[in-house]
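Review session, final week

We close the course with one last complete record, chosen because it touches almost every idea we covered. It is Gas vesicle synthesis protein GvpL/GvpF, a protein from Usitatibacter palustris with 223 residues. Go through it on your own first, then we will talk.
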Amino acid sequence: MKPARSLLYVYAVCPRLHARVDLTGVAGEPLQIFAAAGLAAVIGELVRAPRVNITAFRKHDAVVRALACRFPAVVPLRFGSCLAGTEDLRQVLEAHATPLRAKLCLLRGRVQMTLRGVDHGCGRPAKSDQDARAATGRAYLQARAITTVREDEVPSLAPLLPAVSRWVRAERIEKRAGIVSVHHLVPQGCVAAYARAMHRTAEAECVRMTLTGPFPPYAFGRL
């Protein structure tokens, strides 16, 4: 009987480490460090990909949070990031070494805060309507540029953003099912000041919002 083929579950990428990682992963597997291209991937060896459920999500998050507490910079990977073996992982690290190093520099000493509110929309027409009106290539590009700008607008939360801009090092905006999420990358030592300013301004401007964090910088770890 052939032994079951294992998968590598990749939790995060860090600068090259000279320390052991005495943690366990989503399936209770001991975590290891795989080094390549001057980077270190924190991995676990699994028989199969983990099931998608809240328990597994929490275990994944616990690993990433523990790594973020121990090391100055961590690029967290999405839940369920699996590869067939170390050679595949080596190729990924080598192919993405430059953007990964840039992300590690950006994320060093910083955490994610997430602001959520209702997406009232900006009255933008559907893409199909824009495309239908764009009779020329130039008109099409102009229409797409306007759409891109509008997708970054958050009118329901706009009064709050200037109050915290001094602490924001990067921003990501997501809109889904009528909810807008604004993810901010903030220096770890400034979280309390950021939160106070956000809550104070929301009360003064009568803006309904939810502020959560600090988190590991999940929204900023995508390649």
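Two points worth writing down before the exam:
The radius of gyration is 21 Å.
The CA atoms of residues 8 and 88 lie 9 Å apart.
Good luck, everyone.
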